[in-house]
Amino acid sequence: MNKVAVVILNWNGEKMLATYLDSVVRYSCDEAVVYVADNASTDLSVEMLRRDFPEVKIILLDQNYGFAEGYNRALEQVEAEYFVLLNSDVEVTVHWLKPLIQWLDTHPEAAGCQPKLLAMHDRTSFEYAGAAGGFLDRYGYPFCRGRAFQTVEHDEGQYDQPAEVLWTTGACMVIRADDYRRVGGLDARFFAHCEEIDLCWRLRIAGRSLYCVPESRVYHVGGGTLPKINPRKTFLNFRNNLTMLYKNLPQSDLRHVMRWRWWLDYLAAYKMLLIDRNWGDFRAVYRARKAFKRWRKDFDDDRQRIQALATATDASRQTPPNDPRSSFSLLWQYYIKGKKRYSQLPIS
Q: Using CA atoms in the order 193, 194, 200, 203, what is the torsion angle rounded to 10 degrees?
């Protein structure tokens, strides 16, 4: 069995692979086996891989399963102690893997970790998708060391110390294979968006820890090329975020948070319509709320199992209930109090 497997999920990403896979091969193959799992691409991705990257192992999936199920199916075919989930639009750097693997080797309580994620289009700035490690506010809104909502900070070394985080980015996540499998991997029903946060929350409930190790750094295209208006993305983000909350919130806070999210989601929708003049995203929020309501009961068993695990974990450690969310509202801090940097937030 290999110690480390770098697994890149691809769907019609021939150009991205041609541009960025070379850095992964050059700076990883001494320490890891590199795989590309192809989600039934219709472009020439597989032909290009076979021609230009013969050292890369290819996993062929029979259809586009999305990010979550695509990784689950691919990782079933990989034997390694550590999995590295890596986006195809990431450029890695010399020795990027060593600090991450050394951290897991020396911190047995850690299920996974991530590097410092910087933007490809501006290498002095953090990248939206994960920056220097992720958190959630009281109402389930994600933020990072280096990013709050649309405000992304310049990297000035302010987050260069390793830190425990609530979630690690799916753009570049190193995770123990045993932990990934123990909690059931990514939730395939999400398809894409919020699935890595849901996975990390479940790991935290199981008593495991997650870290950012900024000695390692990589560069991510990510939001630098995404269209500003993307109703499909808006739909998945809102639906999946609500589902994640329903699965993982402690019972004592579930009703309170869900009531607030009803108001906050519709407030966001009307901002999209009346201020942004964005009819597509407005409709996407409404559709997401309805979709969540329709399928919420499908997650009742998951919720019961997760809450039972939380109770057992807390009892075994003799600790208060494990709720890793921050206690404040990011909306209030950001829009009302004008605190738009991580260092300004009232992190307890």
A: -100
